[in-house]
Amino acid sequence: MFTHNLDPILLSFGFLEVRWYGLIYAFGFILTYYLLPYLATKRDVDFSKKDSADLLLYLMLGVVLGSRVFYVLFYNFSYFIFHPLEIFAIWQGGLSFHGGLVGAGVGTYLFSRKRNIHFYDLADLIAIPGALALFFGRIANFINAELVGRVTSVSWCVNFPGYSGCRHPSQLYESFKNLVIFAVLWNLKDRKLKRGVLFWSFVMMYAVLRFFIEFVRQPDVQIGFIFGLTMGQWLNIAMFGIGFVYLRKVNR
């Protein structure tokens, strides 16, 4: 048993706070910035460090917008329909991975059109550091004591502040899941695979592993269970189905 007493604030200067969450996500984007040109040489894609910086801007905007829109639509629409101005208060939390993935896809597509690079060439590149960035991101969720797991009696359970009972550290399960996905994709990066295989492999692996982790993750209180499954699990089912169809398509 572990009692969570981690401070989410690293440094504080008056009203200015430096949080672990923001630093870890910034580190993820910096890591992606340096990895993309390296991976481009491995995948024989014409892509420079300047392209990497430009693409990251598209990705950051796409991820933030997409993740917020999905959260509003799928996780708390009944609240935001009566509080529309709070849609813009993203600092209060409320982001969806599935929406962030869609937003990142849109951002990648727009950049690929601008730079005249095949969409799948970029998507395959982004999937690898993206999985690693998600590994660190879930650690940030653990530090913030958010997205907690369900009550359990396992010896490694965690007492999170503001929650009753000892719970699964589901954030760390998800972090490890993303590390596994990164390791698989990293080992595939040098292989002569068809365009899109790495990206859709990422989508399918994420959907399957996240689906099972959701069984020990606390469902969103405003939604609960939908026909016995969480909203995240239903979105993962849709994600897996789309990934399966397109992985077969790109392999033909």
Descriptive key words:
two-stranded parallel ribbon, mainly alpha, 252 residues, globular, two-stranded antiparallel sheet
Approximate shape: globular
Number of strands: 4
Write down the secondary-structure element order.
EEEHHHHHEHHH
> What oligomeric state do the depicted chains represent?
single chain
For the sheet with most strands, the description reads: 2 strands, parallel
User: Looking across the biggest beta sheet, what order are the strands in?
Assistant: 1-4
* Structural class designation: mainly alpha
What does this structure look like?
The chain is mostly helical. The protein has a domain at about 1-45 and about 120-250. Helices cover about 60% and strands about 5% of the residues. It is built from 8 helices and 4 strands; from the N terminus they run βββαααααβααα. The longest helix is centred in the N-terminal third of the chain and has 27 residues, at about 50-75. The chain is globular. The model has no long low-confidence stretch (mean pLDDT about 90).
Summarize the helices and strands and which ones pair or pack.
Elements: E1 2-3, E2 9-13, E3 16-19, H1 20-42, H2 49-75, H3 77-80, H4 97-115, H5 119-143, E4 158-159, H6 170-188, H7 197-213, H8 231-251
Summarize the structure.
This protein is mainly alpha-helical and 252 residues long. Helices cover 62% and strands 5% of the residues. Strand 2 and strand 3 form a beta hairpin.
